[in-house]
Structure formats: C-alpha cells, structure tokens
Amino acid sequence: MEANVLLIEDDPIAARLVELQLGSTGCRVLSALDGLRGLKLAHANPPDLILLDLMLPGLDGFEVLSRLRADPQTADVPVVVVSAKSQATDKQTAARLGADAYLTKPYDWAELRALIHSLLSERPEKAAVHGTCVLLVGSHGGEATPVTLYTGLALTGKGEATTVVDFRPFSIEHSLLLAVAPRPAPVSLSDPGTMAQLPGLTVLHPGGLRLLNNLEGSGEVGQLTPEDVRAVLDVLLAEGGFVLADLPLYPINVMHKAAACCALLLLVIRSDPTSLAATRAAITLMQRAGAEAVRTGVVFVGPPAEGCPTELEQAVMGVVPAEAGPDAPAFRALADRLRDLR
Fold first, then answer.
1. Greater model confidence, 222 or 124
2. How far apart are CA 87 and CA 52, in angstroms?
3. Which residues does 95 contact at the CB level (< 8 Å), separation at least 6?
4. 130-138: average pLDDT
C-alpha cells in the first residue's frame, strides 16, 4: 500500500509510532506538530490522505479540518480524525466539517491500516502530470556522472524541462563540473518541510538545466534511505519533464527503490576487464533485486570490446567517447533515444 500520508499530531512519540507502523506497509508519512504547519504542508504538496489529531496547539483540529475543506488543493483529500476525544458530539462535529472517518485513541493498528486502505481504494486516480525518470548507474565508479549531466544539457537544449539529481550524500560534484554554485547548505531530507519546497531547492544552470544535489538523507550520518530516494523522485516527477538520477549501485535496496520509479535504468560502463566484471555483477544484483521488471540498457564510455554487448545481453543505448565534452554529438543522440521513451 504505497501512499503519501500527512500526519498532524502534536505528540512526537505518537507521531513516530505512526511513521513506523505505516512505513512498514509502504506509506510515506510526513508529520506536522501543529495545525498551521500541517495546513502549509497539505496546501504545498497535497497528500493522498491526512491523519488529524483534534487537540493541537494553536489551531485545533476542527479549525484545521474546516480550512482543509475550504482549500481547493485539499478539499477532496480523505481526512481521518484520530483523537482521544470520544464524545458523540465530537464525532458529529468532525463529520459535519467533512471528516471521512473517526478513530478514538487508543486504536488498533490493523484497524487504522484497513481504514486507510479502504479510503484510498475508493478514491479515483489522480490525473496528474507525470514526468519521465531515467536512472543512470556507474558500474565501477563515477562513469555515470558526466553522462548524466551532459545528456541533461542535451535534453534541455532540445526544449525538454530536465532536472538532474545527484543521490550521493552531500555530493556537489555536479555543480562543480558545470561551474554552477551549489546550495550553501545541505538539503535535509529528514526535515518535514523539505519535500514541499523541493522544486525550489534546485540550482539553475545557464542553459536551463536544473540541478538538485548536496542532499542529506534521513539515514545514519546523512545516508539516503530508499524512502528518501522514492519521495524525492515522486515530487520531481509530479512537476513533469525529465528527471535524470545519478545513483551509486550500492546499497542495492536504494537503487531498487529508485528503479521502480523509472522508465529506464542505464548502466554506464567502460569496456576494460575490471568494469566489465563489475557490470556483470551489477546486472546479477539488479535481477535478484527485481529490476528485471524495469527497462534496462547500457551506455559505453569508449568503444566496446568485440562481443561485449552480446555477452552482457543488454540493449546498447549509446557509445560516448571517453573524453567527450558536453557538446559531443553522442549526448544529443542519447537524448533523442530518451525522448523516444514517451
């Protein structure tokens, strides 16, 4: 059950329990500790469902519910009131203001999960704009980085709105390679407000390419988790256009999560023996992780050795000269191949 859930709850311990319980089912939970913050998050990036406490500091839950229903952005989002208030009058007021359901604390986790599943199943699919994601993975190091950037510039030159994301924690290499000033501070993905602001946190290349880098994940010492990667891609793809993701092969569970969002997974490789051995291992790992369901291909940096493409059993999407710069025709050709994905 994959869904974006906004939890408006002033008790951080209770909020964390909900995040853990629903996160284990595939939900992505964003928490707000007061009603005003919850309203801002809901308006900026409407979730699939809202869990709303009533006893909140500042604006109480009834006022928050009233404002949610008055906002065209959130008027149709299912709202489940979750409160220790058990009086019939409270439940009636919540229903009158537009709540879809009411759970009294303490409640059973299975009941909450079943209720969320039911509400989301009844809701019609959104006719949302959805972009095209291409995941580029270097089999043995940093091969994917220049290919990702220069293909992004080629797409932008062809009139395609394109964002390049560097999913290596704290990396500003993309900005340095393109001589674009990076953001002065890391983009913290553990901050509840980051996702709502994400499109505005990109830096712009003079050619029109958007760069998102210097990311601090919510994992240990800032590592990106699978949930971080999926949430970032969901937000950017909702903007439309192309999203090119530069991602390390390891850890494999992060790569697998990203691949599930993408129209194509490209392994960027050299034809030397070390890279080829790493590529064969990478293909095996991707297949074991379930990535065979995603379209895959290879891009060679330098001419491939004789028989190499046949041995790898992957479609060759392009061959890029080893020292090619951003104006090389090979990147424009690869950009045209990616445009054919639509």
1. 222
2. 17
3. 102
4. 84
Question: What contacts 24+ positions apart, CB below 8 Å, involve 336-342?
Answer: 336/158, 338/132, 338/134, 338/151, 338/155, 338/242, 338/264, 339/155, 339/158, 339/160, 341/132, 341/134, 341/263, 341/264, 342/132
Write the burial class of residue 288 (CB in 10 Å: 0-12 exposed, 13-18 middle, 19+ buried): exposed
Q: Residue 332 carries which side chain, given as an amino acid letter?
A: R
Do the beta carbons of residue 320 and residue 331 sit within 8 Å? yes
Distance (Å) of CA 211 to CA 149, 162, 164, 214, 246: 9, 9, 5, 10, 11
Q: Is the pLDDT of residue 332 over 60?
A: yes
Residue type, 96: R
**Does a cis peptide bond (omega within 30 degrees of 0) precede residue 72?**
no
Sheet with 242-247, side-by-side order of all strands: 203-204, 210-212, 162-166, 242-247, 132-138, 264-269, 296-301, 315-320
Residue 328 near residue 150, CB atoms below 8 Å:
yes
Cα distance between the two ends of the chain? 27
* β pairing state of 203-204 and 210-212: antiparallel
User: What is the CB neighbour count within 10 angstroms for residue 102?
Assistant: 21
Q: Name all domains of the chain by residue range, CATH numbers in brackets.
A: 4-122 (3.40.50.2300), 132-339 (3.40.50.300)
Coarse DSSP helix, strand, coil percentages of the chain, rounded to the nearest 5 percent:
40, 20, 40
- With a threshold of 0.85, does the pTM exceed it? no
Cβ-Cβ contacts under 8 Å for 299 (sequence gap 6 or more): 136, 147, 266, 267, 268, 269, 316, 317, 318, 319, 320, 334
Lowest mean pLDDT of 43-52, 90-99, 240-249, 264-273, name the range.
264-273
